[in-house]
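B., you asked whether I could sanity-check this one before it goes into the benchmark set. Here's the sequence:
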Amino acid sequence: MTNSGPRDAFVTRLCRTPQILTENTANELCGFTISRGVQRYSGAVTHAAYRSRLRWEIGIVLALSFGASAVYAIVSIVERVTRETALASQTATINRPLAERPAFDLVYQLLAVAFGLAPVALVVFLLWRGGRPHLSRLGLGAPLLRAPRPRWRWGREAAGGLGLAALIGIPGIAFYLAAKAIGINTTVVPTALDTYWWTVPVLVLQALRAALTEELIVVAYLFDRLKRLGVGPVATVVSSALLRGSYHLYQGFGGFIGNVVMGLVFGWAYHRWGRSLPLVVAHWILDIASFVGYALAVALWPALFGAPAP
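And here's what the prediction gave me:
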């Protein structure tokens, strides 16, 4: 594009901020396609300045969320495997008390949930559409291509999440026990919280926070941004799955492998249907079962799920 007059200068400035353009305007003025969500995405952004901005944006979002978690998890697994204690004899606790006094523990737990959702608020802000559905780029809201009976959409997507939870959860338990038995995983303690009236509600909220952050950032956000950068679907699914596995390395190598497999399944489902709600529902169900059902599992099968003796 040559800058031969006031109009061309104005167009150049517009193309440097393509997020404010409509799809048709972007095609006509700048020569690239702006995504209208996963369902309608038809090409990568070619403007060099915008591509650079997207790369920086992805780096910042991940540094504030699961990129940082992955780095800490890698350091954690290195520290674990260099201990004298075998990996299978170590424990990895997910939810732990944050204060000695119950009232303050509750306050800290609720603050952790609230501030833990800040990265989700960030990606919602970044991918918000001016027109309805506002969250289509995150795979939420009414699909751009409406179903014949849209009033049942939420129910169908929730049912799909239940099916995904069964597909991942049942084999996942068997794989976890096998990984621990062969010594490549720690004993995962989903919760070490004491029993109070608020324990179960807090665990349900923590499960929801994990489901929202992981599925909306590691899948929906990352898929949108990588597609805009021209990354193919296979590389996108694999990258998302490897990221998911990497920030679970603190649990051991079994946690890494299991979550990579989960990431591949969830990534394929999102690429196929472009909907986030089934992934969030599935993840939420899996974590509720893990967090809330842990005490029952230990009571029934202490040798399988109980923490190793010190």
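One thing to flag: Strands lie at 91-95, 187-191. Otherwise nothing jumped out at me.
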